[in-house]
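From the shared-data thread, chain only:
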Amino acid sequence: MGWAELVNGRILDAAEAEGFAALITVDKGFATQQNVEGRVIAVLLLDTGSTKLDALLPLVPLLAVALGKIRPGSLTRISNPP
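Structure, as tokens:
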């Protein structure tokens, strides 16, 4: 796709142009750096203490549920339950 050089809002623009319904990220700053209101794409933010696979895997079931409920222009934060 050639997106390696894209940052922040341009990633969202490219994803929308390609027809993606959702963008999944681990960038904790994304929520404050980007406004997704009014967009046709939803953002899911995986919020863990680490970006290592063993920290992210427990979020997969929660991610699957969240993907079934996304709405355009929304940002959903997914984290381990307390």
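The mean pLDDT is 90.
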